[in-house]
Design brief:
Layout: E1 5-11, E2 14-19, E3 22-27, H1 39-43, E4 47-50, E5 56-58, E6 67-71, E7 74-78, H2 93-104, E8 111-115, H3 121-128, E9 132-137, H4 140-152, E10 160-164, H5 167-177, E11 183-186, E12 191-193, E13 199-201, H6 202-216, E14 223-228, H7 235-245, E15 250-258, E16 265-274
Parallel strand pairs: 3-4, 8-9, 8-11, 9-10, 11-14
Antiparallel strand pairs: 1-2, 2-3, 4-5, 6-7, 12-13, 14-16, 15-16
């Protein structure tokens, strides 16, 4: 399978990654070890980003406004944002494969809700597996980006609802409407703002978020997939929360990893409550 992403090296709080033909150096707080490659290899990066004196790109002019890569069997449109993001979190690749397989194995066309859905990696994975998907993000721009990624993967005509809204407001409306989902995917921000300026803080709001998720599950649920990039939120914390909500579910958890030629680099955690 073609894969245009590769972690080339990491260390000293940085990561060196290849996205198709372009090599980028960006911050990575977890990389507390020494880099494996010499400094000269890092210096060959097409562009770099740092937060030492505000958010700054160096060599951004070497990058096109956007380009396309393929990874984990999915295509993505990338572009350098002012915050150093590119429109993809490659540490989610294993989760995308799992989502696609879980949806395909359901024996039906499951309904999937993808919350805080960013550029749609999980939405594309679920749709490729045959699911009907509701994609929600508070950013109109990111929802449009995700729609473009769906089209790149031949999914423009698949049953996907594209929603720009605050997650809690939307879920409460769905509960009142009686709409239910067979699976829910969520990667809440540590801190964020909703479409109407609503403030989200994960340490304050996560329990309410997951409580609403529980209300939205169908009578034949498949899974809840929670992931997080919040420092200090470990897989044990996630397991404790999900086990209280769904004591009969099988829990699967671990660290999300950036992988390639170098030492694997942890980048967040995941926890899945599996019912089927």
């Amino acid at each position: 399978m073609k894969d245009d992403y590769e972690l080339l090296d990491s260390g000293d709080g940085r990561k060196l990654e290849r996205f198709g033909r372009y090599v980028l150096a960006r911050p990575c707080s977890q990389a507390m070890w020494r880099p494996s490659l010499p400094a000269a290899e890092w210096a060959r990066a097409d562009a770099s980003f740092d937060r030492e004196d505000g958010n700054r790109w160096h060599g951004r002019g070497n990058l096109p406004k956007e380009w396309t890569i393929e990874t984990a069997g999915q295509r993505f449109r990338l572009g350098g944002t002012d915050f150093g993001h590119l429109g993809i979190f490659p540490e989610q690749r294993a989760q995308w494969r799992w989502i696609r397989d879980a949806a395909a194995a359901a024996g039906r066309s499951p309904s999937v809700l993808n919350l805080f859905a960013y550029s749609g990696g999980s939405t594309v994975a679920a749709a490729l597996g045959g699911a009907e998907v509701c994609h929600l993000d508070a950013s109109k721009g990111m929802v449009e980006w995700a729609r473009g990624n769906a089209a790149l993967n031949g999914l423009a005509d698949r049953p996907v609802r594209w929603i720009v809204d605050d997650a809690h407001k939307f879920m409460k409306r769905e509960v009142r409407r009686g709409r239910r989902y067979d699976a829910v995917i969520l990667d809440p921000p540590t801190f964020g703002r909703g479409a109407g300026g609503e403030m989200y803080k994960i340490e304050r709001d996560l329990k309410d978020t997951l409580g609403l998720v529980a209300e939205l599950l169908s009578d034949r649920p498949l899974f809840v997939l929670f992931s997080s990039h919040t420092p200090g939120l470990s897989q044990i914390v996630a397991e404790n929360i999900l086990s209280q909500l769904w004591p009969s579910a099988r829990l699967e958890s671990g660290e999300m990893l950036l992988e390639g030629r170098s030492l694997p680099c942890p980048s967040g955690i995941y926890c899945r409550a599996v019912f089927a």
